[in-house]
Specification:
The protein is of the alpha/beta class. It has one domain: Class I glutamine amidotransferase (GATase) domain (Rossmann fold). It is built from eight helices and eleven strands. It is globular and about 60 Å long. The protein starts with a strand and ends with a helix. 43% of the residues are buried. The mean pLDDT is 96.
Length: 272
């Protein structure tokens, strides 16, 4: 069976790389944590991996807006050979490989233009900006899957609790034309919902006021997923803040956290 290789980017204030790598290891993949500079210097090639991961954190201290500085670095930086990094990214996607960005990583992807990329030109079409609450939200929320989403990351998932840890998670869509394309193609793959699974814009179930109640986006191919909540922070059932009561109610509840399903999904998909 194929060994799935996951590249986890770090550096410049990213700080969730160990959790991301742990998720892939538990899912049966072989993770490697690599500083972004080692890719720019061509010490490591993204093409040696099956999935490229941008974890959460506070790149460049969230100066100039969360993720903007590092997104610009990746969008305009050239490798030591002179080849633009974005050309590497395009080739990686064209090869049918996968990209995941969580929280700060989601912010990179939208500001680089990789999500939602409805026009196919890597032009920025949406942004992630300050929460309506005007404060950092650090708590658990519920997510509801769009059943028409085509991304293999979310196979078999209907609803999932997940922690959020962000001050700038509000998705704003550029205009009505882009929003219509997102809706028509079912790119809004996870929405904030209440405990019963009802999608809502009401605070605190929706922690930031995002357009379309959006918690995650894919590109039209389904190969690229970006999301604000942290599934890599729910790898064990015992990560859940209410695990004790839930275990008493259901003693046979599995020990795996529901966030791990996203990683096992993509690993198993690549293996096939």
């Amino acid at each position: 069976m194929k060994t799935v290789k996951a590249l986890v980017i770090t550096g410049f204030g990213i700080n969730c790389e160990e959790e991301m790598a742990a998720a892939y290891k538990l899912a049966g993949a072989e993770p490697s944590i690599v500083h972004l500079n080692d890719i720019f210097l061509e010490k490591v090639s993204i093409h040696d991996f099956d999935i490229l991961n941008f974890p959460g954190g506070f790149s460049y201290g969230d100066d100039l807006g969360s993720g903007k500085v590092l997104a610009n670095k990746m969008k305009y930086r050239k490798l030591t050979s002179g080849k633009p990094f974005m050309e590497e990214m395009q080739e990686f996607i064209d090869a049918g490989k996968f990209i995941l960005g969580i929280c700060n990583g989601f912010q990179f992807l939208v500001k680089m233009g990789l999500l939602p990329n409805t026009g196919g030109t890597f032009q920025q079409e949406v942004t992630l900006t300050r929460n309506n609450s005007a404060k950092y939200e650090d708590r658990w929320v519920y997510l509801k899957k769009n059943p028409a989403s085509n991304t293999p990351f979310l196979d078999g998932i209907d609803m999932m609790p997940c922690p959020v840890r962000h001050g700038e998670g509000k998705l704003i869509i550029k205009d009505a034309v882009i929003q219509e394309k997102i809706v028509d193609a079912n790119l809004n793959c996870l929405s904030y919902c209440d405990a019963e699974g009802n999608v809502t814009s009401d605070y605190p179930a929706n922690p930031n006021g995002a357009d379309l109640n959006c918690a995650a986006l894919t590109d039209p191919t389904g190969q690229i997923l970006g999301m604000m909540p942290h599934p890599e922070a729910f790898l064990s059932f015992y990560n859940h803040p209410n695990w004790g009561q839930l275990k008493r109610q259901n003693p046979s509840h599995p020990d795996e956290g529901e966030g791990l399903k996203l990683f096992t999904n993509i690993v198993e998909h690549i293996e096939k």
